[in-house]
Amino acid sequence: MGLSRKNVLMLLQERTEKYADKVALGMKNQYGWREFTYRGIGLMSRKLAHYLMNELNVQKGDRLAILSESKPEYGACVFASVISGMITVPLDVKLTKYELKSILSDCEPTVIMVSRSHIEMAEFLKQEIPSIKEVILMDEPCCNIKEKSIYQLPDNYDDKWKVRSSKSTAFIIYTS
Of 16, 124, 140, 171, which has the maximum CB count within 10 A? Predict the structure, then answer.
């Protein structure tokens, strides 16, 4: 099967199996490099997708907003959104709370994924936007943050992936 006939889900599964222990993504932090293997990104994506589908009961076409700076977990959130049949809405972290509120009021996400540095904004948005059922932290859990972290999700990930046609919407991107 040629590359043109493969979709994102097929590529994710193929790369996860073929390059399991190879580094897929890395990011430098204050402690040095933090690396994620293809297997690690694949498992994180599938665990989050399982949680979205089975615990939050998201439906195909529901929106998943992401409010975060660039980081390896961002990719896992996008893949989980695709696996679960959701539509990803990436948000610019430089937008004001009023701009974010306007965007989220329009697209009506059910879930917002957020990095630790934007947790207060996500909590504000959850209170303002009725469609948001849950805020999920994209970082390691922290003692003063009550939101569930993707690192705390149970090791459940043996779900069937939602079938997506090549014509289904994967992203909604707001521009200025």
Answer: 16
3-state SS class at 7: coil
Q: Residue ranges per domain, the chain?
A: 45-152
Is 83 strand, coil or helix?
A: helix
- Collapse the DSSP code of 54 into the 3-class scheme (helix H, G, I; strand E, B; otherwise coil) and give the result: helix
Q: Quick one: angle between helices 119-128 and 97-107, nearest 10?
A: 50
pTM of the model: 0.90
Look up residue 60 and give its amino acid.
K
Cβ partners under 8 Å of residue 20, min gap 6: 37, 38, 39
User: Which tens digit of pLDDT belongs to each residue from 145-163?
Assistant: 788 999 999 888 776 666 6
Q: Measured between alpha carbons, how far is 172 from 150 in angstroms, rounded to an integer?
A: 23
